[in-house]
Amino acid sequence: MRLTESAWVTIGLVGQFFFTMRFVVQWIATEKKRKSVVPETFWYFSIVGSLVLLAYSIYRKDPVFILGQSFGTTVYLRNLYFINKEKKDVSP
Fold it and tell me: Fewer Cβ neighbours under 10 Å: the N or C end of the chain?
């Protein structure tokens, strides 16, 4: 495997790690509260994982993966927008 190819496989694995960590964070938060919880950190891991996987899918020239990650990133950013808007509306 060429060095460039190895680097991109590593990038893809890093993206997948961040994407997986969002579920770990959500699971821990849910177990602590004993009810379904989606912490803000979930969305940050989602964005980082999605952007890294998007870069990887662009390198791979995979249109299905590119579309999926592009749409997901939009949703994750929108959720953070609403979370931050709510924080501003609540603060004195």
Answer: C
